[in-house]
Each structure stands twice: as C-alpha cells, then as structure tokens.
Amino acid sequence: MASAAGSSGDGTIASNPRVWIVAGIAVAGVIVMAEAARRRRRWLRDKSAAPPDSGAFCNLFELTPPPQPPPPAARHLLAGLTFAVSDNFEIEGYVAGFGNPDWKRTHEAAKRTAVAVTMLQKQGATCVGRTVMDELGFGVTGENLHCGTPINSASPSLIPGGSCSGSAVAVSAQLVDFALGTDTVGDVRIPASFCGLLCFRPSYGVVSTLGTITNSQSLDTIGWFARDPRVLHRVGDILLPAAVGGVKQTRQIVFADDCFEFLKISNQKTVNAIKNAIQTLPGYQPPKHINIGQYICSNIPSLKEFCEPATKLQEGVSALKALSTVMMLLQRYEFKANHEDWVNTVKPKLGLDISTRVLRAVNFTHDNIKSLYAVRNELRAALKNLLKDTGVLVIPTTAGYPLKKNSKERLSSGFEDRMYAFVGIAALSGCCEATVPLANHSDHHISLSFVAAHGSDKFLLRTILDTYSLIKEQVVLASKLVTTSMTNGNADVDASESLKEKGNSAFKGKEWSKAIELYSQAISLNDTNATYYCNRAAAYLELGRFKQAEADCDRALLLDRKFG
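Structure tokens predicted for Amidase domain-containing protein:
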C-alpha cells in the first residue's frame, strides 16, 4: 500500500505543493519569531543600560545668563552654576509636559519663562533643561510610564522618589549644581531623602509660583535640591525676599520623639548626632523633646473629625495620620477644580498608580470643605506658638524607606501612609522645611527634616549652613562607635541586661528614681529592647510622671506589639 501510494504520488509530502507551502510558511514564521525575540532582547538590553543623563531629563536646552558686568560691579551670586527644572516649569518657546505626553499634546508653548527661573538666570545661573516627573504632579515613586524611571545614583536598584524625581537625580548624578521642583505633598522632600540630597521647601507663598503648572494652589511651593549647603543657601538668597526670617541670636532644637520611634535606626545617628553637633555652637539653648502628635491632637480642634478612633496612648499617631489625610483631601479638591475638565475631555493615558490618584481627585466629594482649610490655619498657628521665632522642629523626613524599582508594594496604602506620615506638618501649615541627608542604613539613605515657623526661611537656611558639616561629623563618629560595638560582640547587650536587673531590684525596693536611672542607662546601651521602656514606664507611673510613662509605652508598642 505504502509503495503504491508513493509511486502514484497521491497524498505524499513530496508531491503535494500545498504541504510544502505550509511547511515553508511555518519555518519562516519560526525564523521571524526568533528574529523578533532577538531584537526584543537587544531592545530591552539597550533600554536597561544606564542612559548618559541617568534618565533625568525630558528636554535639554540652554538658557544662558546675561553677561557679567565689569568691575567694580559685584560678581553674580550664582555665576558658573548650572541648574534644571521639573517638567511643570514654563520656559518661553517650549511646551511644559507636566510629566504626560497628552498634556503636552493639548497645550501650547509658553509665552514667558517661570519667574523663579528668570530670577536665577539673572544672577548668573544657566538652566540646562527640564526633568522627568511623576505625571500631573501626582505620585511618590518617581516612576513615569512614558519617560521611564530616572536612576537613583545613590542606590540604583531603588526608586528615586517623586514627584520631582528627575530634578533630584540630575543633582545626585552631578549633572547640575542644583535643581528646582514643586513641592505639594512632599514632591521635593521625598526624592531628596531617597537620593541623599539637601533640599529646601520654603514657606507657603514667599517664592512666586508664577509660570508653573498648578496641582494644588494651597499646597504648591517651589523647592530646590543641592549637594552643597552653601549652594542651597545661595539659591535661597536669590529666591527668598530679604525680609523673610532674618538673623536671630538664639536657636532651640525641638525633637519630635514620637516621630523618631518610626525609624529603624539608633538615635546615635540621628538625635544624638544633632545634640552633639550643636553643643559647640554659640546661641543654642538646650534642646527640647515633644510628642508632636499629641501636641497636634490637643491644639487642632478641627482635626478631630478626620481622626480614627484611638486609645489615649495612640491619639498622637491617629492625629499624624489624620493630618496626612487632610493634606491629600485638600490636594484632590483643588486638583479637581483645576483640571477636571481637561481629564474628562482628553482622557489621558496614565500609569496605574497615577490613574488611581487622578480618578480619586476628579471623583472627589466632601460635605465640609471649609474644615480642610480650618485645619490648615489652626496648624500654622499652633506651630508658630510652639516654635516662636527661634525654634526648629526636627523630624524624620518620611516614616518609610525607598522600594525596589517596579515593586508591587508601591501600589499599597501602607507605603503611601509611611511616605506621607510627616510631610503634612509643613505642607499643611505652610511652614518652611529643610531636608538633610544623615547616613546610609542598609542600602538606603536616612534623612531628617528641620521645620521652622512660617516666614523663618532665611533663619532656617542659616541654621543648616552652620550645622551641616558638624552633624555629618557626628554621624560618622556614631557609625564608628556602632561598628566598634559590633566587633565587641555582645558586651553592650550583657551590660544593658545587667543594668535592667539592677533596675528591677531598685523597683522592688520602691526606689523609683534609681530604677528610672538604671533603666535609662540600659536604654542608652540598647535602645531597641521594648522591655526596658516598659519597665521604665512602670517606674514613671509610680512617680506620677504620666507623660514620660506614656511616651515609653508608645515606644515599647512600636518595638514589640506583644506589649499592647
């Protein structure tokens, strides 16, 4: 049968041209698919390679300053310095993209340049381009669906933070001397923290935002990044009015102890480093300590409607969370008023997390908008009362740490809560805030923020200029002490346990003050043991020192939930 079929030619591959055609197409398809896969791998490899500008820029150009006038005229204050601006700053003849190609497509080129850019240019600085930002000024990661994610040169595997990621990266990668961005809900401070940079968020309203695209007019401020505190200060000299926060003879640092309890790092590298640094400086009063959450809870009556039910011990944490809630609601309300029509008409293509935020904004409703503004006004008054003209509140910049790029956790509400935990203090009150990088912890930077009363901008910048190098020295010293402690094995742990046992003996003997002293010594050697705080709280209660007991209980809860 087989040979007969073969000799007749019917039904065989050899004699059926259709089969050959199909086979040829299949082989060609395999070849095409293989070539497509090869090209895709090459495209992905090229795309993953670090671009020469670290992916920071979306527009490159050069706005040169006017010529330096001949002597005896003073040299321009920013002569020789270069800077960049976020993609929401208008530059004459260019279209600002606001981080989104649909925005750029539907808007015209600017007829004039942003006021802040012109002021800096007139003083000798050269603007070299516009930088990538989260779409429409939303977002906290610094990732952009259309432009990619600028590479965090301080920690390349981690997100740079947003929304002004490109400006932060341009400074961190030493592509420019400083850069501008707009800070609405931490958009400059968060990327500064993630990229290990200095930044300054001025008091609300003291630096003109004319020529920037508005996200939320009650929260928007122009901020700037720098690597050098002297550059940070010089930019402030240009942008800040002369009357804002003059020289003051005395200063007092106020530590928000409850905020530091969120950090997974020893106080040796944070609070103690600052204390040791200012000891050598004239005019600094002894530092104060405060539970800022409790202070806000007690002094902002309009905040109560936004607070979640909480025990007395957790009221401060609830107040801080409510503050960030009010900040986000105010942003949504004003963004909707500004851009709802454009969003509904254009229906822009947005990244997933940005799309979620924008939808929340355009669908926002609230029964009592006035209460949002009431919180804002009460908070500014309360902080003015706390800090007066010479106080500086010190807080961690964020309560969390940067994620790996493309991490799914970026979409979680928990990550957002940690990012916004403390930024609302300055954002809502309109106070000025400087962010200072302190140390590396594991694979990321730790930054602290210094907050001064509204209008005390130059006073705060001067404080940073005077203390920065001393603080960095103390952080290095603390790191060496920690390393020495680790090489000494468990000596500190053994010593702290011995002190705890002595404290327990004093407690049993009703020597409350002695017990507190011994527990405090144990904490100074090992500040991550919840039992020490719990035992000291018990001794404080015996002496009727309820605030101290409450603070220790809060710390014990943060370290170990079994004490709840």
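Residues 1-15, 19-37, 39-47, 484-489 have pLDDT under 50 and may be disordered.
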